[in-house]
């Protein structure tokens, strides 16, 4: 028995693998062996033999043995599908797989989910410690908005504490995009991410990219005069 080591690939299913084949196989038998590897039915296979990137020819005589062709170790068999109606990538394209989906409400009602298990056993974000931490955060938000009102000038501090933006408070309250309290800010400069609306829900109105939503604890209310970003260099030198 004479064995040859060949690479097998196909442009149909994006597979590439190294396999051993007996040179005594007929091309018809070879196609049956290639079917589970490539996902291409043996009846519609076209096998091309490559040495590197050079095409040596097609293995098109089903009665011939593989060894009758100039095959050597580490050459490549490229398998094409001659059926133009076959669904491409049906074994690797996950978008073709019908998915089982649940709405958030349906998921919450189920008792056999990871979330339900964690809730029953008070694990992760459902633990007493996590609940106490969440309650403390909500209290800090409520405390922060006590002396805050629409129209107040403010300074917004970024997560790294070094980035500060000036703006005006335009919204205070809960939102649909995330639970908890939020403050909608119209920035003095186009440093925001929206125009006062998020996911189709409008909370306030401002020019595009001037709006943003931050947690109340990121806001400092004060006498922050609006900067004139259109000042000339001479104006700046006089200040």
TrEMBL record:
Query: Which cell locations does it reside in?
Result: Cytoplasm
GO MF annotations in UniProt: alpha-tubulin binding; microtubule plus-end binding
What does the record list as GO biological process? cytoplasmic microtubule organization; post-chaperonin tubulin folding pathway; tubulin complex assembly
Domain called CAP-Gly: residue spans: 173-215
An example of a Gene Ontology cellular component annotation for this protein is: cytosol
Family annotation (CDD domains): Ubl_TBCB (cd01789)
Q: Which Gene3D superfamilies match?
A: CAP Gly-rich-like domain, Phosphatidylinositol 3-kinase Catalytic Subunit, Chain A, domain 1
Task: Could you list this entry's UniProt keywords, alphabetically sorted.
Answer: Chaperone, Cytoplasm
Similarity comment: family membership: Belongs to the TBCB family.
Name of the protein this chain belongs to? CAP-Gly domain-containing protein
């Amino acid at each position: 028995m004479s064995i040859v080591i060949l690479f097998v690939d196909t442009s149909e299913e994006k597979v590439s693998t190294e396999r051993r084949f007996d040179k005594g196989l007929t091309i018809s038998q070879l196609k049956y062996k290639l079917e589970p590897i490539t996902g291409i039915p043996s009846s519609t296979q076209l096998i091309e033999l490559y040495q590197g990137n050079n095409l040596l020819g097609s293995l098109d005589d089903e009665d011939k043995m593989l060894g009758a062709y100039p095959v050597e170790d580490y050459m490549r068999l490229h398998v094409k599908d001659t059926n133009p109606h076959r669904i491409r990538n049906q074994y690797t394209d996950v978008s073709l797989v019908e998915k089982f989906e649940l709405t958030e409400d349906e998921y919450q009602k189920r008792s056999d989910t990871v979330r339900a298990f964690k809730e029953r056993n008070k694990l992760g974000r459902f633990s007493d410690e996590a609940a106490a931490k969440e309650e403390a955060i909500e209290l800090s938000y409520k405390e922060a908005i006590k002396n805050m009102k629409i129209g107040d000038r403010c300074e917004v501090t970024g997560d790294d504490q070094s980035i500060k933006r000036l703006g005006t408070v335009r919204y205070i309250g809960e939102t649909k995009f995330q639970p908890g309290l939020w403050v909608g800010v119209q920035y003095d400069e186009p440093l925001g991410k929206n125009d006062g609306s998020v996911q189709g829900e409008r909370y306030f109105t401002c020019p595009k990219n001037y709006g943003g939503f931050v947690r109340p604890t990121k806001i400092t209310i004060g006498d922050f005069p609006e900067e004139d970003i259109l000042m000339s260099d001479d104006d700046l030198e006089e200040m």
